[in-house]
Write a structure and sequence with these properties.
Order of helices and strands: HHHH
Helix content: over 70%
Distance between the termini: 32 Å
Strand content: under 5%
Structural class: mainly alpha
Radius of gyration: 11 Å
Shape: globular
Length: 61
């Protein structure tokens, strides 16, 4: 894993934590992680976490 992929992976782990622990919405988590394009956030999240952020968030309920 290159340094950029590692950095993205850490960002997505933090985004998952925000969804899980802070109960933020997907858009709030994406914006907090510095993404302006939420569809791009969703693609990156799915690549690193294994599912789309909305599905991840819904599975926590």
């Amino acid at each position: 894993m290159g340094i950029y992929d590692y950095y993205q992976h850490l960002r997505m782990k933090e985004a998952a934590r925000l969804l899980r622990d802070e109960k933020l919405s997907v858009s709030e988590a994406g914006y907090q992680m510095g993404f302006e394009n939420l569809s791009h956030f969703s693609r990156v999240f799915e690549k690193h976490i294994g599912q789309k952020p909305k599905k991840y968030s819904n599975n926590l309920k």
